[in-house]
Amino acid sequence: MSPEANDQGPNDPRAGGGAGGPDPGTTGAGTGTGTDTASGRAPGPGFWNTSRVIAALISVLVLVFIFQNTRTTKVHLLIPEVRLPLWVVLLGTAILGMLAGMFWSHHRRKRRARR
């Protein structure tokens, strides 16, 4: 292949470009970086930082614990007594704990922004 056959400009439709730039499904003009076609961001270690890995591991452990405890149990909370499967009680408790953590984290961030 001669060098002249490869001198396609960025707006040349043969180069996968066109007036709007590269096709959405391509990775760029020979950069080799590879982008996620759904978000347009380059994949990398940024998403799986230490805190997300720990959160994912804790979530998996919580789910394993919940689904291994399936017997029925009595629950006393502001009402006389309710019989529920233990996994429902554990899952509900985990969700309430997650929501409380999100609330306090948001509240803390908001307070720090005001200072």
UniProtKB/TrEMBL annotation:
<keyword id="KW-0472">Membrane</keyword>
<feature type="region of interest" description="Disordered">
    <location>
        <begin position="1"/>
        <end position="44"/>
    </location>
</feature>
<protein>
    <submittedName>
        <fullName>DUF1049 domain-containing protein</fullName>
    </submittedName>
</protein>
<dbReference type="GO" id="GO:0005886">
    <property type="term" value="C:plasma membrane"/>
</dbReference>
<keyword id="KW-0812">Transmembrane</keyword>
<feature type="domain" description="Lipopolysaccharide assembly protein A">
    <location>
        <begin position="68"/>
        <end position="115"/>
    </location>
</feature>
<feature type="transmembrane region" description="Helical">
    <location>
        <begin position="87"/>
        <end position="105"/>
    </location>
</feature>
<feature type="transmembrane region" description="Helical">
    <location>
        <begin position="47"/>
        <end position="67"/>
    </location>
</feature>
<keyword id="KW-1133">Transmembrane helix</keyword>
<dbReference type="InterPro" id="IPR010445">
    <property type="entry name" value="LapA_dom"/>
</dbReference>
<keyword id="KW-1003">Cell membrane</keyword>
<feature type="compositionally biased region" description="Gly residues">
    <location>
        <begin position="15"/>
        <end position="33"/>
    </location>
</feature>
<dbReference type="Pfam" id="PF06305">
    <property type="entry name" value="LapA_dom"/>
</dbReference>
